[in-house]
Amino acid sequence: MLLCECICGNDVNHAIICKQGGFICIRHDEVRDLTAQMLEEVCKDVTIEPTLLPLGGENFRYRTSNTSDKARVDVSARGFWALGQLSFFGIQIFDPMAPYYNNLTIEASHSLNEYEKIRMYKERLQNVHQGSLNLTIFTTSGGMGPRAKAFYSRLAEMMAEKKQQPKSSIVSWMRCRLSFTLLRSAILCLRGTRSPPPKSAHIQNLDFEQPVIDSRVNERLY
């Protein structure tokens, strides 16, 4: 079996989840940026990766709660569910064929990812920011979790009302854009190179004359 750059066996399932090369981050960021662009159509104060307010001694129920002073969420926007209310959006994309999900149904896998995000952020966002946590969980092939379906349905409804166009058309466009974004990312994971880029020559202190003489470039060009 061929080996990946990370020294693991290189097959389709591994290529989709391999962190080498940064393709996992690219996949996540494309969906994040697209979602933020759509939110900008109907909400105020849309921010990508806002840093959360520092804690002041608050205690949370779950030990897995994110208490870092540098904690961030994917997107924030004001006025999504209620006028003036700040909403936070967490985006996650997982491969249901990964070994971690071998014994779980697709519904259970979505629920597990949602539950982990809720434990990490919900209390902090509610108690410190007085905001809501909205989760958009996808599979690598484009499947949505129940919370993601509710979120994008509400977003499509708001966009349809603003633009005076049928909600069905907005939903179809939205699903198409999201599907192509994930498909493009899957192709990148499968076909993109994970080898480190070649080192470029530093020309600041390079002696140009001697390499030209040694390689006899002048004779070939003239």
Distance between the termini: 49 Å
User: Can you count the helices?
Assistant: 7
Summarize the helix and strand pattern as letters. HHEEEHEHHHH
Secondary structure: helix percent: 40-55%
Low-confidence stretches: none
- Biggest sheet layout: 4 strands, mixed
Mean pLDDT level: 86
Secondary structure layout plus pairing:
Blueprint: H1 12-17, H2 23-40, E1 44-48, E2 75-78, E3 86-94, H3 106-128, E4 132-139, H4 146-163, H5 167-191, H6 209-215, H7 217-221
Parallel strand pairs: 3-4
Antiparallel strand pairs: 1-2, 2-3
Structure description:
The protein is an alpha+beta fold and 222 residues long. It has seven helices and four strands, in the order ααβββαβαααα. It has helices at 12-17, 23-40, 106-128, 146-163, 167-191, 209-215, 217-221; strands spanning 44-48, 75-78, 86-94, 132-139. The protein has a four-stranded mixed beta sheet, sandwiched between helices. A hairpin with a 7-residue loop joins β2 and β3. α2 packs antiparallel against α5 (167-191). The chain is globular, with a radius of gyration of 23 Å.
